Amino acid sequence: MEIIKIIGVGIVTSICVLVVKQIKPEIAVVLGIAGSLVILVMVINMLSDVFNVFNIIVDKTGVSKDLFTAILKIIGVGYITEFGANVCLDSGSANIADKVLLGGKIVIMVLALPIITSLIEIIESILP
Q1: How buried is residue 33: exposed, middle or buried, by Cβ count under 10 Å (0-12/13-18/19+)?
Q2: What is the per-residue pLDDT for 104?
Q3: pLDDT 10s per residue in the chain (128 long)?
Q4: Does residue 30 contact residue 12 with C-beta atoms inside 8 Å?
Q5: At a CB cut-off of 8 Å and minimum separation 6, what does 107 contact?
Q6: What is the spatial distance between Cα 49 and Cα 45, in angstroms, rounded to a whole number?
Q7: Are 18 and 29 in contact (CB under 8 A)?
Q8: Which residue, 35, 46, 68, is CA-closest to 1?
């Protein structure tokens, strides 16, 4: 199972960071980021299944592909924002992590505008 591999990389990275942090704290940060990137690459490989399911849903429902693309972008921005904020937190930059989270929320809000507009158009078409 993939989750076992992901957890394994996480645990090994965490132990390495703890050991290296006592000797060279600046290298420990880089090591933590590298381990996080390895996990990110492992997870990205699994995303093709998600894209295939979304394509099937688009084909069956007839809903605009742009809407599903926007939803996928929103989900991606959410995950990437959390990843970036956690890297900042691990590096000891809580203030920067807060700004990364704020930026992610604003980007998500902008990406959600076409979805909100479509919903309003649907509601308008239903109302007499």
Answers
A1: middle
A2: 96
A3: 888 999 999 999 999 999 998 999 889 889 988 998 999 888 887 887 888 888 888 888 877 788 888 888 999 999 999 989 998 898 889 999 999 999 999 999 999 998 898 889 888 888 87
A4: no
A5: 77, 81
A6: 9
A7: no
A8: 46
**Model pTM score:** 0.73
User: Two tokens at 103?
Assistant: 């930026």
Do residues 79 and 39 lie in contact, with contact meaning Cβ atoms separated by under 8 Å? no
Query: How is residue 47 written in tokens?
Result: 């995303």
> What letters, b where the CB count within 10 A reaches 16 and e where it falls short, cover 42-75?
eeeeeeeeeeeeeeeebeeeeeeeeebebeeebe
Q: Is 92 helix (H, G, I), strand (E, B) or coil?
A: coil
